[in-house]
Specification:
globular; 11 strands; Nuclear Transport Factor 2, Chain: A; 4-stranded antiparallel beta sheet; 20% strand; 8 helices; 2 domains; 5-stranded mixed beta sheet; Glutaredoxin; alpha+beta
């Protein structure tokens, strides 16, 4: 009997090894198939989706692709799931996890921070453009957010891109002796003295692209979810469960 049990256990382990190897081979095959079909695509991860028969592919452009095991049939867009609480967006939930990891990996390098007054109840990371009207509108309400106990961390995302006047303006703010005073002035439409130094603005701009920022302001919450666009301070605090 003991021999039979040992033999059965060995067989299970052997089959498990084959299964794992097959899964890895499938994922490698899908990655190669997509790279060959889409020049320049950088596949960052391939894994089985919770939807049977589909694999979820993450790429350098931030889009999620779903593919069959042979890598021939592709689906783009969000995967939705019917739950007891209604329709859940599986793709967005996965993106939130990935964003949280990406933000943690980048860290607080070069952020311009407006800390909460008193007890800190929440932290938001805001990708901002100095010349964006709605970014300016949000900045006017940063003191109110701080009073609610919300720390605001600014990451640079001048939408016009590197080398443009708007981009250089953000660099001047970052290089200023008093970053907060320079940011306040720039957001108010005042002229900020041009200044150059080694700065993280381009790295933050690239980070924004990696986490899926397409417009400003983009507000990343601590759980990795993103609020796109301006939201009144009180509404944002209520959404965070602070009020």
């Amino acid at each position: 009997m003991n021999r039979i049990i040992v033999a059965a256990a060995s067989l299970v382990l052997a089959l498990a090894g084959v299964s794992f190897a097959t899964a890895a081979e499938t994922e490698d095959k899908i990655a190669k198939q997509l790279k060959d079909a889409i020049p320049g695509l950088n596949v960052t991860s391939v894994r089985e989706s919770e939807a049977t028969g589909l694999y979820e592919v993450q790429s350098n452009n931030g889009d999620t692709i779903y593919t069959t095991a042979d890598g021939v049939y592709l689906l783009t867009g969000d995967l939705l799931k019917i739950t007891d609480n209604g329709i859940a967006n599986v793709s967005e939930a996965n993106r939130a996890v990935q964003r949280k990891e990406q933000m943690a990996a980048f860290g607080a390098r070069g952020i311009i921070t407006y800390p909460a007054k008193g007890e800190q109840k929440a932290v938001i990371d805001v990708f901002t453009d100095i010349d964006c009207p709605y970014c300016r509108k949000m900045h006017d309400e940063v003191p109110q957010l701080n009073e609610y106990g919300i720390t605001v961390n600014y990451y640079g995302f001048p939408r016009s891109g590197p080398g443009t006047p708007s981009f250089r303006k953000y660099e001047s703010v970052w290089c200023a002796d008093d970053q907060q005073a320079a940011m306040d002035a720039a957001k108010a439409g005042k002229t900020v003295a041009q200044k150059a130094c080694e700065n993280p603005v381009e790295a933050q701009y690239r980070l924004g692209g990696e986490v899926g920022v397409t417009g400003t302001p983009a507000i990343l919450l601590e759980d990795g979810n993103v609020v796109r666009g301006y939201v009144p301070a009180r509404n944002l605090a209520e959404g965070l469960g602070i009020l």
